[in-house]
Design a protein that fits this description.
With 159 residues, the chain is of the alpha+beta class. It is built from 6 helices and 8 strands; from the N terminus they run αββββαββααββαα.
Length: 159
């Protein structure tokens, strides 16, 4: 399909305003504009960006600076890493990424933070407090005693 024909198809589905350019065509289930090119669905904002600005650099995604998923105005789109795009958002992942302190108020410093395999952060002080509370319960004391007895018998038994 020629650029002129694609341009004509795209621009026929846009409502231009001073603020955003609103996509009025088909939408994806996530609320982004979408158009089919050679039977392949393409996000409308990506198609417009590549047509008017140029290719999106490898490994980058387009961030809607206006926070409007139906906006296709190139000036409102910025190529960023997926991590940066999530960090700029308003969802739970973005809020957690921007947090500087845990729920109890301990700073997420290098000395007080460890990372799970999934990348989430754990406050070491809160973890120590939790382990201490857990160990002070009767169940915790019994489990600790059982682990010690098992370890002791393994050590004492002949190899």
């Amino acid at each position: 399909m020629s650029d002129a024909k694609l341009r004509q198809r795209l621009f026929a589905k846009i409502r231009f305003t001073d603020a955003c350019w609103y996509w009025e065509g088909t939408r994806s289930t996530k609320g982004y504009g979408r158009i089919f090119v050679m039977r392949k669905p393409i996000q409308a904002h990506r198609a417009i960006y590549e047509l008017l600005v140029g290719p999106i650099p490898e490994g980058l995604t387009l961030d809607h600076l206006c926070r409007n998923r139906l906006c296709v105005k190139p000036e409102h789109l910025e190529p960023v890493t997926n991590r940066e795009n999530i960090r700029r958002g308003i969802g739970p992942s973005a809020q957690a990424a921007r947090a500087t302190h845990c729920r109890k108020g301990h700073a997420y410093s290098e000395e007080n933070t460890r990372r799970h395999r999934d990348g989430s952060r754990v406050c070491k002080q809160c973890d120590r407090d939790y382990q201490a509370r857990k160990a002070s319960t009767p169940e915790g004391k019994a489990a600790k005693s059982a682990r010690f007895k098992s370890w002791w018998h393994e050590r004492r038994s002949p190899q």
